[in-house]
Design goal:
By secondary structure, the chain is α/β, with parallel strands linked by helices. The protein has 2 domains: 129 residues, Alpha-Beta Complex (Aspartate Aminotransferase, domain 1), CATH 3.90.1150.10; 244 residues, Aspartate Aminotransferase, domain 2, CATH 3.40.640. Helix content is 38%, strand content 15%. The protein contains 12 helices and 15 strands. Strands 2-8-7-6-5-3-4 form a 7-stranded mixed beta sheet, sandwiched between helices. A 4-stranded antiparallel beta sheet has the order 11-12-15-14. A two-stranded parallel ribbon has the order 1-13. The longest helix is centred in the last third of the chain and has 28 residues. The radius of gyration is 21 Å and the shape is globular. It binds pyridoxal-5'-phosphate (PLP). Pyridoxal-5'-phosphate binds next to helix 4.
Length: 398
């Protein structure tokens, strides 16, 4: 008899977005025709930039002619895209070998698949509040979990504790949901801790392109000693609007070894067995993201989201509400005014201001009392939402 993975029974049902949808629908039914301002979604709203569209069209045409047609692509990614990504990293002073870059259909895919490299007998430390996939993929893999809380006191960028034994460490910087970023010293502390413990850091860099401040690391590989303890998972979803087009990349250094096994070689073995590569057309579109025109155009789009974030930051500042994020990330993480709970804040914003955000509690219990606002909406809607927030919370500092 086939034996199911019993760990699936340990998964908590993904209630966060379900409950948001339920409450939002209930409001809509009770108030038909009243428009809602959506500051909850983590999806982008701007279309792909012209350089990407042009490359996609050209790649479609390539597929129409025998001389330029592509069948199966290399499982670990096309050389042209891996080289473009290596140049992007080299521009930041990070030398990578072409073969250390693996092209993927997005970060979510590899956050799940990467656990193939690790036995069931591992403990994963997850800095919370966290993107829910970190917990769920590790539950599915049967790993033990350490829910490592972050807080306002540590700026939502906590440092390692040598008394804690962890094998896998999840760091997301800039962070979803808190928008907080690690500075160099903080990330170095985690790299040093991982090397001391023999742990491996899974570094989620999905929002690196939102970093505006000088000196803030975009990649874990900017830190000394990281090549012997880290894997970086990145995505073009938020960087370049690829949420529906699907492309990302994972970097596994060739130096990464545990118990005499080379994790890079293992990952090549995994990918060449379990995938057949990413579509030629999509990879050509992704290559264009790294062209000079593509870089300029995606920066213009990111600037739109960052202006939205600045509008929301000004509104929270005007209300005296504590928050982090927004500066180097598309998310703001605000303290719910007046000691309100996350879901009470959700209901209040929905009912009094017709704003839909995301209750912090949905990202781990230490997110209770906080609320995530996203800057991915249309500028006009964000401005309207900011005005309503000011009216609603005008004098309720937190
Ligand atoms: N990692 C983080 C922190 C995210 O917020 C997201 C998407 O919202 C992902 C990974 C998944 O990205 P992708 O669209 O590349 O699968």
């Amino acid at each position: 008899m086939a034996k199911p993975n019993l760990h699936y029974a340990e998964l908590k049902s993904s209630y966060l977005f379900y409950h948001i949808e339920q409450r939002t629908n209930a409001y809509r039914q009770a108030h038909p025709g009243v428009p809602l301002l959506r500051l909850g979604a983590g999806d982008v709203t701007l279309p792909l930039c012209p350089a990407v569209i042009e490359a996609l069209h050209k790649a479609v045409d390539d597929q129409a002619h025998g001389a330029t047609f592509h069948g199966y692509m290399p499982e670990c990614g096309a050389g042209f895209l891996k080289d473009a990504i290596c140049s992007y990293y080299a521009g930041r002073g990070i030398p990578l070998l072409t073969d250390e870059v693996f092209i993927t259909t997005g970060a979510a895919d590899d956050l799940g698949s990467i656990l193939d490299l690790f036995s069931q007998d591992n403990t994963a430390l997850i800095i919370e509040p966290a993107y829910p996939a970190y917990v769920d993929t590790n539950v599915m893999a049967g790993h033990k979990l350490i829910h490592f809380p972050s807080s306002r006191a540590d700026g939502f960028t906590p440092l390692p504790d040598d008394g804690i034994e962890a094998d896998l460490i999840y760091i997301c910087s800039p962070n979803n949901p808190t928008g907080a970023v690690y500075d160099r010293a903080g990330l170095q502390a985690w790299v040093d801790y991982a090397n001391r413990k023999g742990a491996v850091i899974i570094f989620d860099a999905a929002y690196e392109s939102f970093i505006g401040e000088e000196g803030v690391p975009h990649s874990i590989f900017e830190l000394e000693g990281s090549r012997s303890c880290a894997i970086e998972i990145c995505s073009l979803s938020k960087t370049a609007g690829f949420t529906g087009t699907r492309c990302g990349y994972t970097i596994v250094p060739k130096d990464l070894e545990r118990s005499g096994m080379n994790l890079h070689s293992m990952w090549v073995r995994s990918r060449t067995t379990k995938t057949n590569g990413v579509s030629y057309i999509v990879q050509r579109g992704a290559e264009a993201v790294f062209s000079p025109a593509g870089q300029q155009q995606i920066r213009e789009n990111i600037a739109v989201y960052k202006r939205n974030a600045a509008v929301l930051m000004r509104a929270l500042d005007a209300c005296g509400i504590w928050y982090c994020g927004g500066k180097n990330a598309p998310y703001l993480w605000m303290k719910c005014p007046g000691g309100m709970g996350s879901w009470d804040c959700f209901d209040l914003l929905l009912n009094q201001a017709q704003i839909v955000g995301t209750p912090g509690e949905g990202f781990g219990s230490c997110g209770e009392g906080y609320f995530r606002l996203s800057s991915f909406g249309a500028a006009q809607e964000v401005e309207e939402a900011a005005d309503r927030i000011k009216k609603l919370f005008g004098s309720q500092g937190a």
